[in-house]
């Protein structure tokens, strides 16, 4: 095995990991602000994948171009879900939140099975067989575009929370909910907005992932668990940590799939999780409580 081949495998895992990290960003945003774990996260991601597949089949719309439309639909869904149901459980015990979100996940998953069936559905974009060659690196165009799209969306999300007034208000709610309420911030409205943003981000990740993976309902629980692993590895509530965790998981899966067996990819995700928990329990970029 040559060094160039190894570098290409790592680069491929990095690009896929960026999309994983973008999906985990949505989960981290929701948990970091609302303090509710979205157990329907993978189902929302797969719904985003099917949205991109439908738009491609109906209008020939590239998943990258359809991502904003998918995000808009999932934003409305997430906003309404938080406003109508989840907000009533924010102050309740964690096990009640778990049962609520698990029930929503089950409903969404079964709706996807009823509408689309168990078979895989993908997109055949014109550049599916194109390859970019830069020095020793040879990467397929679909994976490259998906990774670059994930970077762009993550940059916009970071800028929103860092510079916009609404983003700063959401951060204030995350840091000190009581203080935010005292100074007049509408916590319920900001929570709903945050949940909508998290759903929109994971919808975009799902749309981008259709360039790499075919959509099928059975992926939903896998992506929910994968997002949890990434968020824990990166650090609960840390947006940069979620992106870093996604890259680490993507690279580890790529190396495990090539050096060992593709069926062992998921095993290495758990190995990374265990190592991080042993050495740094708060996550790579998490803060000690």
Tell me what you see in this structure.
This protein has 289 residues and is mainly α. Helix content is 73%, strand content 3%. The protein has a two-stranded antiparallel ribbon with strand order 1-2. A hairpin with a 2-residue loop joins strand 1 and strand 2 (137-140). The longest helix is centred in the first third of the chain and has 32 residues, at 3-34. It is globular and about 60 Å long. The N and C termini lie far apart (44 Å). The mean pLDDT is 92.
Oligomer: single chain
Sum up the overall morphology in one term.
globular
Q: Give the number of DSSP strands.
A: 2
Query: Roughly how much helix do the residues carry, as a percent range?
Result: over 70%
Mean pLDDT: 92
Spatially, the strands of the biggest sheet line up as 1-2
N→C terminal distance:
44 Å
Main β-sheet description: 2 strands, antiparallel
In terms of DSSP E residues, the strand content is under 5%
In DSSP terms (H or I, runs of 4 or more residues), the helix count works out at 11
Low-confidence stretches: none
Q: Can you write the helix and strand succession as a string? A: HHHHEEHHHHHHH
From the alpha-carbon coordinates, what is the Rg to the nearest angstrom?
19 Å
Structural class of the secondary elements? mainly alpha
Task: List the SSEs and their pairings.
Elements: H1 3-34, H2 41-59, H3 63-84, H4 94-116, E1 131-134, E2 137-140, H5 141-163, H6 165-175, H7 177-182, H8 187-209, H9 219-234, H10 239-259, H11 265-279
Antiparallel strand pairs: 1-2
Helix pairs in contact: 1-5, 1-8, 1-9, 1-10, 2-3, 2-4, 2-8, 2-9, 3-8, 5-6, 5-8, 6-8, 9-10, 9-11, 10-11
